Amino acid sequence: MYKSPSNNNELDHLISLLGKIPGLGPRSARRAALGLIKKKDALMRPLANALADVAENVHPCAICGNLDVENPCHICTSTKRDRSLICVIEDVSDLWALERAGSYRGLYHIIGGTLSALDGVGPEDLNISGLVERASDPDLKEIIIATNATVDGQTTAHYITEQLKPFDVTVSRLAHGVPIGGELDYLDDGTLTTALNSRRPF
Amino acid sequence: MYKSPSNNNELDHLISLLGKIPGLGPRSARRAALGLIKKKDALMRPLANALADVAENVHPCAICGNLDVENPCHICTSTKRDRSLICVIEDVSDLWALERAGSYRGLYHIIGGTLSALDGVGPEDLNISGLVERASDPDLKEIIIATNATVDGQTTAHYITEQLKPFDVTVSRLAHGVPIGGELDYLDDGTLTTALNSRRPF
């Protein structure tokens, strides 16, 4: 039987909501609630305001799916980005990862997940139609498919490639191989085999 | 160099605040922010309201230190609790743990931490004076010291015992031994030694 941790409705409600945050479970939610109450002015009230603020003002971009206060987002409207390149990614976190790396200056397209027969996710559940629309843009030269290197991610990449065949646009994917700083001994067989087969002259 | 994860002030601010919650780091804060945005109405807005509500209405009880919307708290004012017993604990989470166990029906006293020479925590930083005041209550028969079984917790327990010596009240502490469901093979030497020395007849 689940017992109310604090016998206090306000606190119990907060703890149950905190426990639904990805990364926090019931026990860490209790710890988080106590930690927040100890820092009411430095953390708890600012966090309440920031949550309400983001819920109100941050929306997905109608073109690429990026989260921003503007719509279209600052990447889609930027004059400094290379508009001949679109990088297709699963989620906003992948966009953040690529932006942190800082080496990509093109546009993005977030499809919002992967095809998955097990989870019942079909092409109509992902934003693939929007990508196909963007593919007819005459300025566009290349679409880089950067879905994750998982089975579902690769399936999705193949499906998208098929959809993009009618268009006059290069479709490429990220290179697979040994991660920078990676030790061979710790790599799985699949990565090692791919790295060997894709070897390049010095 | 720390790079802004989203190039978006509102979101970055939220992520930096989420990262300060005990149990969440920078990476899990980004994941939490995305998870929250995906559930704006089911989770994000209710969480913002719950945080503001608890920050406004939940306060430490002036007698025992428990967190409640009432002051004194519902345990201190309850007529169903045994007012001859006070259990001394370090933190509110310990009170919740004892209430979940459901076998204790006395009152509580939260001292708010442990004495610690390393962290510079002295008796004046803990709510020990409040406990000494409560010890003179003629209804009180026993004080159970339930600080954690750590070095600092035990030091604090000894200090409190000293302070309570002038009063006509029994001072006891929780039993140490083998946890229920525990296997001897996995227990540390200290616990095993204590369990052996404190053995009891069947």
Structure annotation, total helices of chain A: 8
Computed CA radius of gyration of chain A, to the nearest angstrom: 22 Å
Give the overall form of chain A: globular
* Highest CATH level, the class of the largest domain in chain A: Alpha Beta
Give the rounded overall mean pLDDT of chain A: 91
Strand order across the biggest sheet of chain A?
4-3-5-6
Unreliable stretches covering 5 or more consecutive residues of chain A: none
Describe this structure in words.
The structure is a homodimer of 202-residue chains. Chain A contains eight helices and six strands. Chain A starts with 8 loop residues before the first helix and ends in a 5-residue tail after the last helix. The first copy, chain A, has helices at 9-18, 26-38, 40-57, 74-77, 92-101, 129-135, 151-164, 189-197; strands spanning 59-60, 67-68, 82-89, 106-110, 142-145, 170-173. Chain A folds into two domains: 9-57, Helicase, Ruva Protein, domain 3, CATH 1.10.8.420; 67-173, Dna Topoisomerase Vi A Subunit, Chain: A, domain 2. The mean pLDDT of chain A is 91. Chain A has 202 residues and is of the alpha/beta class. The radius of gyration of chain A is 22 Å and the shape is globular. In chain A, the strands form two sheets. A four-stranded parallel β-sheet of chain A has the order 4-3-5-6. The interface between A and B is large, with 54 and 54 residues.
